[in-house]
Design brief:
The protein is an alpha/beta fold and about 725 residues long. Helix content is about 55%, strand content about 10%. The chain has 28 helices and twelve strands. Strand 7, helix 22 and strand 8 form a beta-alpha-beta unit. Helix 16 runs antiparallel to helix 17.
Length: about 725
């Protein structure tokens, strides 16, 4: 025997035995709760282990009768009879095989987890309400609501031995974890059923017990196609196939995160489940699905390959053939208690909390209630409808608010503006008084024709009434493009969408390698996002609105701090963001050259000078003797900053450098006015000069007021 097989036997055989201890009592209980023969649950456990274990796409998932299918199986049995239900199971298996062959398994993952968790919670509630009556020694009612109505009377007036055995079994289930030494060896379901069975046998109480046919091999419960309307049959087949498939695939994905072996093949898993259901239905078994409790037990017990799953089915078959008299000693109240415990566990508070965090609680609650009140299939449909409506609401939801501050009236609009948001938009815009100046902060990721029309009609009416409206679009120019008749781009692009993650510092190689990796990253991500915009700019040419003069400091990213993108800024960068005065021949001429091009070719209407905190060039001007080496070119260039130093003086407090950096901006604006072309345009109102200061430590932008006396921070509002 090879070392590989010896390792498999060493890990998978013990794991398969542990899974049997959990699967056997659960299979019996699920069969009883489904209204099916007890042997049907054992048949499905065997088929689920052997067939799905051998053919499925997951190496560790354990399949068998699932509690999540209990309600739908019970409804199918009540409608078509047991043998008709077997035929439905076979047909559902065939449908699963076709779906697996069509490679659509991943489509099942599109079902919202809120629906799945709500469905399982609803099934858990139904199981609890029905099995409590069995635990109390009575028969369950026809519906969950009937079970709920009859429950108070059962609890007050029932004190039979069945109650004692059921409550004792529940107590062992909930208290077993308090005995960690035993809990690590014997699973709680097995321990609880053994205790309940031992007490019932020792007392000799007359209780309903598991009934297995004397000749198991002669068990005749094969499928008979029921005589019913085709639409009813198709609905039943689709319901069994859908629920079994979704539960199996979600379970497979969840279990896949728990081990480091081969990853699951979902299409193969779906086909394996279908094959198992064909065989199970043909032999008189319950529908088969992946079960999270058994699968988790398998992984935790050390199961690593298909061998543990297949062997667990073999061991159950051996037990049924050899130890049927022992299984028949199990009282039904003990199995009912096990199902009550399982049903409570299906209402998973952790899942509910996760759903709540993602704001999908309405879907979860409505699915749960609909499953309890209407039925499983109807509950899933209600949940899907609710999830669809919630998604549509989120996609079309827009936040619109009007407010007034010290700067006047503002309207802030965020989200997707569609016709559904027009009533809210109109109500909010109506709050703005007539005749006032309004700034509209439009951060829309989409605007349809109705929204554009509503906003533009209000703007037109407000301006006719003497007011003014300025629309500032912070995302894509949906409004501006619509009212000017321009064609909206095929894909919206955020102004800073071209920015990419910083990777250069993480690359321990040379500059060429860092640049190469950065270029590859741009090709993979940035080029795809900004490509349409660059293609448009290549066709139309650049049309920037301003000349932006700033420092060469690597910490200053003009497009980032101004939320602009390609084509918006004509940028000049130099050490100290300096503008030599006109007529000063001791400079390189690059700044005047850029100004000539910006003013005469690009026709910019704004020139911005942006300084920043902690400027190294100005610090060197303050303390020239601190430079690490002779830098004649730098010192010659910094002569243009001497007037800035004279504005603040040589000596000051701890904020001396900050005041120098700010006054340097003021000085460069004055230097700009020494150029006749700039001064002429400023006096004519064709050009505006703006001073900006960026505090790197606080990420705050300050603008110089028109009087050039102080910098004021820009409000985030």
């Amino acid at each position: 025997m090879s070392a590989q097989w010896r390792e498999r036997l060493r890990t998978d055989v013990p794991a398969s035995l542990v899974v049997v201890l959990v699967a056997l009592p659960l299979s019996l209980g699920i069969a009883v709760a489904s209204g099916a023969p007890v042997l049907a649950g054992l048949i499905s456990a065997v088929i689920g282990g052997i067939v799905v274990g051998a053919l499925g796409g997951s190496v560790v998932q354990v399949s068998g009768p699932a509690a999540g299918l209990t309600l739908i199986v019970a409804q199918t049995v009540a409608t078509f009879g047991w043998r008709g239900a077997c035929a439905i199971t076979v047909a559902a298996g065939v449908l699963q095989l076709l779906l697996g062959a069509s490679r659509v398994a991943r489509a099942a993952l599109a079902v919202s987890p809120a629906i799945v968790h709500g469905m399982l919670a609803g099934v858990g509630v139904v199981i609890v309400l029905s099995q409590v009556h069995v635990l109390l020694g009575d028969a369950p009612q026809a519906s969950a609501l009937a079970n709920l109505r009859a429950l108070p009377s059962e609890l007050l007036h029932n004190h039979t031995p069945a109650v004692f055995v059921g409550v004792l079994t529940l107590a062992v289930l909930w208290g077993w974890r308090a005995v960690p030494t035993l809990a690590g060896i014997v699973p709680a379901p097995l321990a609880a059923v053994v205790v309940g069975t031992a007490v019932a046998a020792a007392t000799g109480w007359d209780l309903q017990r598991v009934d297995i046919p004397d000749d198991i091999l002669a068990f005749d419960a094969g499928p008979i196609w029921p005589d019913a309307a085709p639409s009813t049959l198709l609905a039943a087949v689709g319901a069994v196939a859908l629920v079994a498939s979704v539960e199996s695939l979600l379970c497979a994905v969840a279990v896949d995160r728990m081990h480091d072996g081969p990853r699951v093949n979902l299409d193969r898993e779906l086909a394996g489940q279908g094959a198992a259901n064909v065989v199970a239905g043909a032999l008189g078994g319950l529908p088969v699905a992946g079960v999270i409790v058994r699968s988790t037990t398998n992984v935790k017990a050390g199961g690593r390959t298909r061998l543990s799953t297949v062997l667990h089915g073999v061991w159950i078959l051996v037990l049924v053939l050899v130890a049927a008299p022992v299984i028949e000693l199990i009282p039904l109240p003990a199995l009912a208690a096990l199902l009550v415990y399982t049903g409570v566990q299906m209402v998973n508070l952790t899942h509910a909390q996760q759903v709540h965090q993602h704001r999908e609680m309405p879907v979860y609650v409505l699915t749960l209630l609909a499953v309890v009140v209407l039925g499983l299939f109807e509950g899933v449909l209600v949940g899907m409808a609710c999830a669809l409506l919630l998604s549509v609401w989120r996609l079309t939801h827009a936040t619109v608010r009007a407010y007034q501050d010290e700067h006047g009236w503002h309207v802030a609009i965020e989200g997707s503006l569609t016709f559904l948001a027009v009533p809210r938009l109109s109500r909010t815009l109506a709050q703005v008084p007539a005749g006032v100046a309004v700034g509209v902060e439009l951060n829309a990721d989409f605007m349809d024709h109705a929204a554009v029309t509503a906003l533009h009609d209000w703007r037109t009416g407000h301006e006719r009434g003497g007011g003014t409206v300025e629309v500032h679009e912070l995302h894509h120019n949906w409004y501006a493009d619509a009212i000017t008749g321009q064609r909206a781009p095929a894909r919206k692009i955020h102004p800073t969408a071209w920015l990419l993650p910083r990777v250069h510092r993480a690359v321990p190689h040379g500059a060429r390698e860092r640049l190469t990796r950065g270029a590859r990253l741009f090709h993979r991500h940035g080029a795809r996002r900004v490509g349409p915009l660059l293609a448009e700019l290549a066709r139309t040419g650049q049309q920037p609105t301003q000349l932006f003069i700033t420092c060469a400091d690597s910490r200053i990213v003009p497009s980032m701090i101004t939320s602009t993108g390609p084509g918006d800024l004509f940028t000049v960068r130099n050490v100290g963001n300096l503008v030599p005065r006109d007529g000063d021949g001791d400079h390189d001429g690059s700044v005047p050259a850029a100004m000539d091009f910006a003013l005469n070719v690009l026709q910019v209407r704004t020139i911005t000078v942006c300084g920043h905190s902690g400027c190294g060039a100005l610090a060197a001007l303050l303390r020239p003797g601190t430079l690490p080496a002779p830098m004649p070119h730098l010192l010659r260039w910094l002569q243009h900053a001497k007037p800035s130093l004279q504005r603040v003086g040589q000596v000051g407090d701890g904020d001396h450098l900050t005041r120098l950096c700010q006054q340097n901006v003021v000085q460069q604006l004055e230097n700009l006015m020494s150029y006749p072309g700039v001064a002429e345009r400023v006096h004519d109102g064709r050009l505006e000069l703006v001073g900006m200061y960026f505090d790197i430590a606080t990420s705050r932008i300050h603008l110089l007021d028109p009087t050039h006396t102080r910098f004021t921070p820009v409000s985030a509002r």
